[in-house]
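User: Okay, second chain of the day. Same drill as before: sequence in, structure tokens out.
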Amino acid sequence: MASDLEAMKVMIIDDSNTIRRTAETLLAKAGCDVITAVDGFDSLAKIADSEPDVIFVDIMMPRLDGYQTCALIKNNNQFKETPVVMLSSKDGLFDKAKGRIVGADEYLTKPFSKNELFEVLEKIAAKAKKTAEVLPEA
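Assistant: Same drill. Structure tokens below.
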């Protein structure tokens, strides 16, 4: 399992210290390079600096919420292809639909299990691998 995730650069944007630390610990153990941010505003410069392979973003955050953060990422030419996973404590249809509208690729309900976290990452890694095979490097 960890082979596809090895050296994957993952950003976790969440105002919850617990969620950030838990995800960071799980991902680091799997060999991922983890970057964290406390809110959408904090994440913008870090995204530009680190160019993550996948971004997990909490919906409910101060200053810049998850929807606004996702929209900013997806409207940026450099990062529009970067997979964004919305994190929410609500499993609502409305939240999922709104996430899709702003360009979210996946949706994870908190609290999530280690298996749920890795399932989403595996799906993203498989999709990236497929895209890389279709688009040979120039």
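The first strand starts at residue 9 and ends at 13.

User: Thanks, on to the next one.
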